């Protein structure tokens, strides 16, 4: 029920994952109709969230939670307000048409069932991200979008370009994800709050925190990489290596909007500061203009749209950071408009490519008669992208211009960037909608015709929605845009959404935008060449820089490996023991945690004898030059320690020590006889001193650690537990045996596994040496 935690919402969050698992079977069962069948899932999810619109529009925030991890206190919780509901409707609504579109687009592909599964996994990940309330659950879904997009971008894994694009997207977005995780953990450590609801309810607590700058940088790192803000934008155009349904979904309603969602979601608690209102407009404005300029340079229709997505994301980030109420309403409106027109235009381009056999502008023309429905959908989507009247894009553009025109300084620069960027995107949108359809008839495929319904239904419906959203502006504003603005800004807006034209400065700027856009479209070829020449003069950019960075990282890793992994076993042991000594002694010195010198009682005759035997064994080990003598002496001092265990009433431990020492001596002696080792130790005096210092450091460090541990008051709770439960639970009188076999059985298994692996390694080494000697003997014969 609206207003109450609903099991249906959890079912809606889980449904895409279930459908993803069943998608290959659905493809086998329903064949070419699998897309229509699987689309029932996102359509049902859309209807569920549409049902919640009245409650959210009335100001309610719907929530619910189930315990995901009892031990760590992580909840799988949802929070549905105006922002998350708008995203959920876009993800599920556009996702419905994308799934339908994927059927005819990938018809005959042997892995179409797998593709459906990846797409639904992507949908579920993004849906979980925008609905999640718990920070750690949000991060899990955040990373799942990166992983699922990696699978989709690299779907055609036989092509090197697709593999590189998928790898690049994963590296960039996952790196940002780690920054986001650090930021969320810092928020949790600073505030003691682990959910969005708690942080949003705390108001300005984060802004007042001394850790605010660090939190801001980390959150922006996650958001900027995900939403392709300059200079992290390069992965987004390369992601066009994915099949067109992926591009349409990725750019309209899913992953690239995740960073924008995060910034909008945290605007009430991180925004309204000088840093926020400076960094976001600057990076957003640069991304907007750079993306729009790079877009008009492209001759591939899909790449052209990809760069306009980069520009649009920059526009959304810039508006989110502008701070003004009108700018936030403009951001929410443009978010809706962009999702509709960009999803539609990508599907239009895919339909053209599917039927005509190319996406290159120069190879297309005159397709209007053969593809009339696709043309109508393209014009409707381009009209919204260009901000023409009677489209939701027009209202969004008017709103952002009105808000930015009444600012000063940085707001004026943002307004200038918005006009330039929108004009270039106007030209790009109509380049897609006009150039392939008009002029001289050109297409590699001479048999072009209107594609099946699955290819044109999505773009047609989305284009109509872009018009209906403004024709029914009162409902759109009251039910979708104003609740989203309330969630983003933290305050209600009194604006009204309508198709009315107001003769003011914002409308004049809209006219200027359209005029400039028409001029750019008219001179598109010349501008394309000019931008290409400028880029050639600049040289390589972030995309090539990514390759250089990865190559440098690989060279550095190889250098480190060659330096550390020298193949010298003696060096490995020295470094390991030296680091052990440092780890034991340095913290004690830094924090003045040296143990007090204990009071020793006079040892008995038997104890004195065992101590002298152990010390004598160590002295022989240090003094002898013969390896075999050192091995036997090392075993002798081990036997002395075992006798001490016996004297102190630990026969089981003593027996274990005897066995270990015996086996050690036998194995080491066997190795000495089978390996080509010198019988004498030929270390120089400096080497002897170096090794001696490290050995003494380890010994002293472990000794001090044991003394410090025994100084602490004895806590008998664990001993009492074993004494009380060994017989009752494990049915054993020997407490030590019960601990080893039952209570710590997995530890014992691990120790046995270590011994087994060590034995196998020794056996392999001996066999290699034996085979080498046999080969040498054969060659000598």
Automatic annotation (TrEMBL):
Record domain MrpA C-terminal/MbhE: where: 690-771
InterPro entries according to UniProt: CPA3_Na-H_Antiporter_A, MrpA_C/MbhD, MrpA_C/MbhE, ND/Mrp_TM, Proton_antipo_N
Residues in MrpA C-terminal/MbhD domain copies: 612-675
Species of provenance: Propylenella binzhouense
Coiled coil: none
Subcellular location: Cell membrane; Membrane
Domain NADH-Ubiquinone oxidoreductase (complex I) chain 5 N-terminal: 72-116
GO cellular component: plasma membrane
Domain NADH:quinone oxidoreductase/Mrp antiporter transmembrane: 132-420
GO annotation (BP), single: monoatomic ion transport
Membrane-spanning intervals of the chain: 6-26, 33-53, 83-103, 115-132, 138-155, 167-189, 209-225, 246-264, 276-297, 304-337, 373-396, 408-435, 455-473, 507-525, 571-591, 597-621, 628-649, 655-676, 688-709, 748-766
Annotated GO MF terms: antiporter activity
Location, primary (coarse class): membrane
Keywords: Antiport, Cell membrane, Ion transport, Membrane, Transmembrane, Transmembrane helix, Transport
UniProt topology in membrane: Multi-pass membrane protein
Record protein name field: Monovalent cation/H+ antiporter subunit A
Pfam families xref list: MbhD (PF13244), MbhE (PF20501), Proton_antipo_M (PF00361), Proton_antipo_N (PF00662)
């Amino acid at each position: 029920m609206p207003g109450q935690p609903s099991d249906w919402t959890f079912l809606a969050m889980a449904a895409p994952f279930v459908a993803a698992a069943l998608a290959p079977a659905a493809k086998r069962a329903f064949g070419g109709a699998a897309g229509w069948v699987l689309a029932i899932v996102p359509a049902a999810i859309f209807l569920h969230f549409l049902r919640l619109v009245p409650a959210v529009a009335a100001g309610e925030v719907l929530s619910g939670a189930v315990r995901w991890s009892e031990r760590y206190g992580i909840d799988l919780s949802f929070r549905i307000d105006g922002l998350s509901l708008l995203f959920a409707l876009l993800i599920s609504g556009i996702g419905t048409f994308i799934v339908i579109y994927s059927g005819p687009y990938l018809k005959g592909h042997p892995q179409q069932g797998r593709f459906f599964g990846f797409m639904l996994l992507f949908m579920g990940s993004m849906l979980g991200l925008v609905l999640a309330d718990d920070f750690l659950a949000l991060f899990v879904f955040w990373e799942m979008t990166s992983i699922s997009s990696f699978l989709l971008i690299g779907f055609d894994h036989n092509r090197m370009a697709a593999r590189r694009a998928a790898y690049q997207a994963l590296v960039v977005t996952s790196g940002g994800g780690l920054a986001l995780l650090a930021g969320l953990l810092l928020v949790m450590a600073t505030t003691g709050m682990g959910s969005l609801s708690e942080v949003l309810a705390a108001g300005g607590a984060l802004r007042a925190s001394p850790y605010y700058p660090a939190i801001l940088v980390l959150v922006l790192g996650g958001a900027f990489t995900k939403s392709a803000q300059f200079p992290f934008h390069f992965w987004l155009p390369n992601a066009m290596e994915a099949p067109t349904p992926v591009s349409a979904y990725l750019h309209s309603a899913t992953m690239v909007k995740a960073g924008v969602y995060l910034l909008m979601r945290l605007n009430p608690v991180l925004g309204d500061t000088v840093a926020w209102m400076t960094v976001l407009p600057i990076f957003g404005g640069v991304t907007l203009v750079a993306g729009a300029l790079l877009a008009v340079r492209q001759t591939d229709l899909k790449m052209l749209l990809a760069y306009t997505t980069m520009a649009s994301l920059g526009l959304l980030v810039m508006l989110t950071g502008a701070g003004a109420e009108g700018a936030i309403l403009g951001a929410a409106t443009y978010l809706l408009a962009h999702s509709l027109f960009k999803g539609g235009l990508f599907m239009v381009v895919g339909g053209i490519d599917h039927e005509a056999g190319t996406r290159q502008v120069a190879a297309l023309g005159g397709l209007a008669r053969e593809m009339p429905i696709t043309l109508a959908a393209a014009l409707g989507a381009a009209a919204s992208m260009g901000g023409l009247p009677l489209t939701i894009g027009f209202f969004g553009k008017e709103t952002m211009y009105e808000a930015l025109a009444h600012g000063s300084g940085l707001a004026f620069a943002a307004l200038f960037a918005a006009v330039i960027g929108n004009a270039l995107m106007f030209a790009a949108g109509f380049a897609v909608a006009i150039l392939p359809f008009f002029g001289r008839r050109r297409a590699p495929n001479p048999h072009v015709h209107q594609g099946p319904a699955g290819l044109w239904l999505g773009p047609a419906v989305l284009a109509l929605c872009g018009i209906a959203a403004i024709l029914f502006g009162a409902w759109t504003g009251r039910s979708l845009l104003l609740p989203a603005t309330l969630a983003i800004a933290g305050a209600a807006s009194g604006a009204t959404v309508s198709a009315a034209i107001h003769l003011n400065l914002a409308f004049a700027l809209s006219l200027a935008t359209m005029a400039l856009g028409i001029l750019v479209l008219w001179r598109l070829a010349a501008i394309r060449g000019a931008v290409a020449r400028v880029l050639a003069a600049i040289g390589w950019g972030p995309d090539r820089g990514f390759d250089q960075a990865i190559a440098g990282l690989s060279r550095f890793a190889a250098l480190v490996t060659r330096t550390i992994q020298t193949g010298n076993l003696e060096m490995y042991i020295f470094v390991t023991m030296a680091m052990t000594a440092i780890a034991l002694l340095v913290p004690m010195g830094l924090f003045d945690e040296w143990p007090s010198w204990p009071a020793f009682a006079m040892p008995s005759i038997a104890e004195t004898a065992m101590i002298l035997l152990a010390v004598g064994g160590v002295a022989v080990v240090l003094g002898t030059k013969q390896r075999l003598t050192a091995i036997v002496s090392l075993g002798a001092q081990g036997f002395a320690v075992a006798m001490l265990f016996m004297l102190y009433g630990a026969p089981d431990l003593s027996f274990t020590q005897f066995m270990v020492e015996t086996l050690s001596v036998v194995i080491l002696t066997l190795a000495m006889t089978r390996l080509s080792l010198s019988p004498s130790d030929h270390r120089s005096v400096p080497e002897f001193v170096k090794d001696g210092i490290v050995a003494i450091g380890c010994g002293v460090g472990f000794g001090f650690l044991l003394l410090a541990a025994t100084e602490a008051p004895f806590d008998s709770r664990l001993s009492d537990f074993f004494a009380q439960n060994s017989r009752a639970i494990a049915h054993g009188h020997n407490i030590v045996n019960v601990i080893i076999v039952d209570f710590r059985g997995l530890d014992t298994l691990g120790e046995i596994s270590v011994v087994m692996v060590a034995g196998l390694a020794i056996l392999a080494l001996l066999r290699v040496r034996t085979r080498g000697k046999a080969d040498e003997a054969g060659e000598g014969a």
